[in-house]
Write a structure and sequence with these properties.
The complex is a heterodimer of chains A (285) and B (486).
Chain A: H1 2-20, E1 36-40, E2 54-56, E3 74-76, E4 83-86, E5 89-99, E6 102-106, E7 108-110, E8 116-117, E9 120-127, E10 134-142, E11 155-160, E12 168-174, E13 184-189, E14 200-207, E15 210-215, E16 218-223, H2 225-231, E17 245-253, E18 269-279
Chain B: H1 2-24, E1 45-47, E2 60-61, E3 73-76, E4 86-91, E5 101-107, E6 120-127, E7 132-138, E8 149-155, E9 161-166, E10 178-185, E11 201-211, E12 217-222, E13 228-235, E14 238-240, E15 245-249, E16 255-260, E17 265-269, E18 275-277, E19 282-285, E20 289-297, E21 300-301, E22 305-313, E23 328-332, E24 343-348, E25 353-359, E26 362-381, E27 388-395, E28 403-409, E29 422-428, E30 438-444, E31 464-484
Parallel strand pairs in B: 13-22
Antiparallel strand pairs in B: 1-11, 2-5, 3-4, 4-11, 5-10, 6-9, 6-11, 7-8, 7-10, 8-16, 12-15, 14-19, 15-16, 17-20, 18-19, 20-21, 20-22, 23-31, 24-26, 25-26, 26-31, 27-30, 27-31, 28-29, 28-31
Classes of the chains: A mainly beta (285), B mainly beta (486).
Chain lengths: 285, 486
């Protein structure tokens, strides 16, 4: 009897939620860490908050990884054409132009040494660009100030998309024994919606021995040390209990994953970020 | 038990209340009480296991007189993507006595449907071979064809695949009768030229319906194929906006291009004292000056435009004198009987823009940005008994022009090539050409002595097959090309 009732309530509750979700309410229920520790809502037009963000400039050569390690085609700048704040949104714009030997320009922001923590909830509300060759990402990199190098420092890709797949995003972890093409990843397909027509909320909740991935109201992936062990036949090492991670937001063009833009790719393309929020890890009961 | 029931009712009530409140607090501005519009059914399905809401005829073929095969259409109860039946189309071979292609429309059996709530027509299809269907779409009703949409050349798979025809602007479709249109001819695996070597095949269509897909986006409309054209025009003439397109990005990430009817667009002229555009995309030139023609589709500016420079009313070339027909071999003139099937560009450079226009029965041809062009026609002409070639030329560009007239003779074999072709040119002095003024040029028949790019000059005159014009990128209006004797 109780089971039946639950079914009935569930059945009724779903339409209720559905109706209410027509609004612009951003709240979602899959995340449980609610103590906000840092956020950028991009409220000041024309200004990137440098107490929050650093710019990565160039094509990666200065960092010793030309093409940023992925044969990416863009040159990152901090010019307004490539990165600015307008109407309460961060705009990262990929342009097709000859610039310092590159064919494209774009921008990459990160929070190294400014906003970084171990565990917690990292969330952003983003509208993505579209078209072959676009590769936007919202991700975390482990702090390497102790001299450790990737992939030992770990990488948590909260959201990546390739512009030729406008309904799909994927969440990924990279670590020793499972990096690059051998990273551990899951794809999520939006229901009757696209990444480039509206905003979606992309986030993780990360605690000791787990990372939960969500999009909007859907928790679609949990990754644990057991998963890493299974995926790597025991050779992979869980490096997500070790150190603080910082945020990276970027729009790459071309590279190993998406492939180069083609004749149909429309430029410029803009990744529009409504907010980035970081919440403290709280022990669940 | 009772408690639980009450709870249940309460939840239901809350849900209904929320629903009502949301409906009441919708963002759309309410229409005034007087504004009551007739609405038509918004039925989505067109064919599931049988036709849905279509006329009793179901399929209305294109005109059999044009080769449409009315026997090639049917349903198949052995093949279905879903359910138990599909539409089966047996594309005929080119020599099929019943017609060499299949195509037609499905019409709504009522007064039309309200499709404003949908974003696409969609269906599943598979082929017996991986042929290409020339056309699928909707909006064709064989009456007004007001809001047609055509998606050309969809490639079939031998397994079921879903195909989408995006609706360029659903708000236009308040009462649409044309539910589906398709056309298919044989598959040509040899030369892509319709010459009788195509083969027939079968394809099936199922689950044909309108859908409200949230995954079609990134509308990019185009007029003039997305080109920004610059042209000269004349008061009193008309010009059609051509090469309309609307490109969408599909859920698969691929771009889908459809050809919308002009009525989907909002065209505009930057100066309506110079020219204006109607809903069919017809530009009417009414005054002197410059204007730019642009288009919008569903609020998105179309790529491509036309900048019109209107210098004044068109003044035709002087009408050629009456002559005994035996004294004239006319290529292009409204005053004489011309050669058959004149081709204004039997060959041409890739940048020249060619257009014919008609002013009160006087047809002219314009060659803008001309490097070279050759006019051709059926057969060859023996002009050896003529004394002159006449051509009326009006320069329509401002740079110092170059203008050479060439004749090409195909020789005794009457065919291009074969080793017996000859040709030669006559250069008109640039000082003879004046922008905006007709100049009648009469070239003595034996004066085509200059070498061309191919021939040494002084062509034979018994099998003339081409009159060519060579320039330096200048623009010309041409009329009255004919050989005559004095």
């Amino acid at each position: 009897m109780d089971k039946n009732l639950n079914k009935i309530i569930g059945f009724l509750f779903v339409p209720c939620l559905f109706i209410m979700s027509c609004g612009t309410d951003d709240t979602q229920t899959v995340a449980t860490f609610n103590t906000l520790v840092a956020e950028d809502n991009f409220d000041v037009d024309g200004q990137i908050d440098t107490s929050f963000w650093n710019f990565d400039i160039g094509d990666g050569s200065e960092e010793g990884i030309p093409g940023w390690g992925n044969n990416e085609l863009q040159f990152y700048t901090d010019r307004t054409e490539n990165v600015t704040v307008e109407n309460g949104f961060l705009l990262i714009t990929a342009k097709e132009e000859d610039f310092n030997g590159a064919q494209y320009t774009s921008a990459r922001l990160q929070t190294k040494g400014k906003i970084q923590q171990r565990y917690g909830r990292f969330e952003a509300r983003i509208r993505l660009p579209f078209g072959q060759g676009m590769w936007p990402a919202f991700w975390l990199l482990g702090d390497d100030s102790d001299g450790s190098v990737w992939p030992q420092i770990g990488e948590i890709d909260i959201m990546e998309n390739t512009g030729d797949a406008p309904t799909e995003i994927f969440g990924t972890v990279h670590g020793p024994g499972y990096s690059g093409e051998n990273s551990i990843s899951k794809k999520y397909t939006l229901e009757d919606s696209r990444v480039d027509t509206g905003f979606h909320i992309y986030g993780i909740e990360w605690g000791p021995d787990y990372i939960n991935y969500y999009v909007d109201n859907v928790l679609y992936y949990q990754i644990t040390p057991e998963d890493v062990e299974e995926e790597t036949d025991g050779s992979g090492e869980w490096v997500f209990n070790d150190r603080q991670f910082y945020i990276v937001l970027n729009l790459a063009v071309g590279g190993n994953l998406p492939g180069a833009p083609n004749a149909e790719t429309v430029f410029p393309q803009t990744m529009v970020v409504d907010y980035v929020r970081v919440y403290e890890f709280t022990q669940s009961n | 038990m009772k408690m639980k029931n009450i709870k249940n009712i309460n939840l239901k009530t809350i849900c209904s209340l929320i629903l009502v409140m949301i409906v009441l607090s919708g963002c759309d501005r309410d229409l005034s009480d007087e504004a009551v519009f007739a609405t038509f059914p918004n039925t989505a399905d067109i064919f599931t296991d049988s036709p849905v809401g279509l006329t009793d005829r179901f399929f209305i073929s294109f005109d059999p007189a044009l080769g449409a095969n009315t026997e090639a259409f049917g349903t198949d109860d052995d093949v279905a993507y879903e359910g138990n039946s599909s539409i089966r189309i047996d594309v005929p071979a080119p020599n099929d006595p019943n017609g060499n292609f299949v195509g037609g429309i499905f019409l709504d059996r009522g007064e039309g449907r309200d499709l404003t709530g949908y974003t696409a027509l969609s269906f599943w299809a598979r082929g017996s071979i991986t042929a290409t269907i020339g056309l699928v779409g909707f909006g064709t009703d064989f009456e007004e064809d007001k809001f047609t949409v055509e998606r050309p050349n969809i490639q079939l798979s031998t397994d079921w695949r879903k195909y989408i025809v995006p609706i360029p602007d659903p708000s236009k479709l308040v009462q649409e009768s044309g539910m589906f249109v398709f056309s298919a001819g044989g598959l040509d695996i040899i030369d892509s030229v319709p010459n009788g070597n195509e083969i027939g095949y079968t394809f099936w269509i199922d689950e044909l319906r309108f859908e409200n897909l949230g995954t079609i986006a990134q509308l990019r409309p185009a007029i003039f194929s997305g080109e920004d054209l610059i042209e000269q025009g004349f008061v009193g003439s008309t010009r059609l906006i051509t090469d309309l397109g609307a490109t969408f990005n599909a859920p698969t990430g691929e771009d889908i291009m459809v050809i919308p009817a002009p009525r989907y667009f909002d065209f505009s002229s930057s100066n309506t004292n110079i020219a204006f555009v109607n809903e069919l995309g017809e530009i009417e030139i009414v005054g002197e000056g410059t204007t730019t023609i642009t288009g919008q589709l569903n609020g998105v500016l179309a790529e491509g435009s036309l900048s019109l420079e209107v210098l004044g009313s068109f003044v035709g070339a002087e009408t050629p004198p009456e002559r005994d027909p035996s004294d004239v071999i006319s290529i292009f003139s409204d005053a004489y009987t011309n050669v058959n099937n004149l081709n204004f560009a039997a060959f041409n450079d890739q940048n020249v823009q060619i257009e014919t226009q008609n002013f009160n029965g006087d047809q002219i041809v314009t060659y803008d940005n001309l490097s070279f062009v050759g006019l051709g026609w059926d057969g060859t002409e023996d002009v050896s008994s003529m004394t002159h070639l006449h051509v009326d030329v009006q320069l329509s560009s401002s740079e110092t022009p170059a203008f050479t007239v060439q004749l090409i003779d195909f020789g005794a074999d009457n065919a291009d090539g074969g080793g017996d072709d000859t040709g030669g040119g006559f250069t008109v002095s640039s000082s003879e050409l004046t922008e905006g003024t007709w100049v009648g040029i009469d070239i003595p028949i034996n004066d085509f002595t200059e070498a061309t790019a191919v021939f040494p000059g002084s062509p034979n005159l018994n099998n003339i097959a081409r009159v060519a014009f060579v320039s330096n990128g200048s623009s010309f209006i041409i009329d009255n090309i004919y050989f005559y004797r004095e």
